[in-house]
Amino acid sequence: EVIGTFGLSLSDLSTKITKLILATLGLDAETFYESDFEKCKPTLCISGYSSHGKCEGEEALPSHADAGCVTILYNDETQGLEVRSKQGKWFSVEHAPDSFAVMLGDSLK
Q: Using CA atoms in the order 43, 81, 96, 1, what is the torsion angle rounded to 10 degrees?
């Protein structure tokens, strides 16, 4: 029940962020969201990786691009998030423990 409620809250937040981006671009957020982003349904995915037992440089999760509209990532004390530049170079993203990172996915290119 707790995870379900958490997932619904993140879904609502994702929709609000997407509509704010559309409005910032000067579009009718409600109309444009319903016609072009309705298929961009939020999905709750729970992944984790441990800082223990991994060799330096070993991937905990395979590299990937977020295909959705908005990714909301909860950050615990484990560092490991990286982003790739257009040139293909990877950069570590430092974060505070118990924080959230909001990233835009490929569908908003």
A: 20
